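Q: Hi! First time doing this. I have a protein sequence and I read that you can turn it into a structure. Is that right? Here it is:
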Amino acid sequence: MAALSTGHLATDLAQGSLAALLPFLVARFDLSYAMAAALVLAATSSSIVQPLFGLVSDARGGYWLLPVGAAVAGIGMALAAVAPTYPLVLVAVLVAGLGVAAYHPEGSKFANYVSGDRRASGMAFFSVGGNLGFALGPLLASTAVLALGLNGGLLLALPGLAVAILLVAVRAHLRHFVPVRVQRDGTTGAGDDPRALSLLLGVISLRSVAHMGLFTFVPLWEVELGNGAAHGTRLLSLFLLAGAVGTIFGGQLADRFGRRLVLRWSFVVAAPLIAVYVLVGGVVGGAALILSGAAVIGTFGVSLVMSQEYMPSRVGMASGLSIGFAIGLGGVAAVVLGGIADAADLETALLATVAGPVLGFLLALVLPPSSARRLEPVAASL
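A: Yes, that's right. Below is the predicted 3D structure, encoded as C-alpha cells:
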C-alpha cells in the first residue's frame, strides 16, 4: 500500500503544482481569470477519460498504467512551466492530466485489493498520498520557480520519474493481492447499482466545485488582497495538508459510523468555513480556510470506496468515474467561476463555491447505503 500511496503522491504533486504556477503564468502571458481557470480545466478535463482506463484495467489488467501515469504527469507539468506560449502550456497541462488519468483507476483498484475488510481506512491511506501531493506540489513549484525562474519548473518531472522506477520494482509483490476474479452476483453484474453511483457522482461533482474553485483562486485572491503569491501558495498548501489529515480521520470515522453520515456532515461543516474565509479574512479567515480543507477533501477516500461498493463488478471503471469524470466537472466549474470573477469580482466567485457543499449535502441525503464485499487475495498475472 505504501508504494501505491507514494505513487499517488507523486502523480497528484504534478497536478497540484499548477496552482502555484498560475500567478507566474498569469503575469507572463497576461491572462484573464477565465484563461487561468482554463488551465485548471485542461488539467482536470483529461481526467474524464479515466473511466476508459478503468475499463481497460477491469477487462485486461493494466499495471503498466501506474509507472507510466506517474512519469507522464510529472513530465507534462514540467513542460508546462517552460512552454513559450499559452497554447503550448495548455497542451502540456493536458498531457500531465492524461498521466494523472492513467494512474488513478489502476492505483485505486489495487488499493481496494490490499485494504481487506477495512476499505474506507485503506482507501483513506491511499488517498492521503494524493492529498499530500496536492499540498506539496504548490510548495515545490513555488520554491523552484522563485529560486530559478520558470525553468525551475523542470524539477517537477523528478518525483514522477523516481516513483515510476519504484512501482516497476514492487510489481511482483503487488501481484499477490490480485483476486482471480471480481465477485459478482451472477454473470450480469446484478450486485451493481448504477443509479446509486450516478447520485454519488453528482455529490462528488458538487464537492469539486468548492475543491477546484478554492484550488484555483486562493493564490490569486491573496495576490489581489496584497499578500503576495508566496503567501497564497502557503495558505493553499495548508488547506490541502488539512485535507490530507482529514482523509485519514474521514476513513476511520466512515468505518465506524458509516460512509453516508461522514459524507453529509463534511458538507455541513465546509460551507460556513468557506464563507468565513472570504468574508472575514485575516487570521480567522485563514484558519477557516485550512479547516475547510479537512471537510472538503477529507471524504475523498470515503466517496471512492463507496463508488467501488456501488459497482463491485467494475471496480476500475467506478474508480475512474469517481476520481476522473466528476472531478473533471470541477474543472468546468472553475472556468465558470473564472467568468464570474471577470464579470463581477473574485470575491463573488469565491463565495459562489459555497453552493457546492450546500447542494452536495442535499443530494447526499438520498444516497442509498453501500455494501462492502471482501475479495480474497490470490496470485494472478498482471
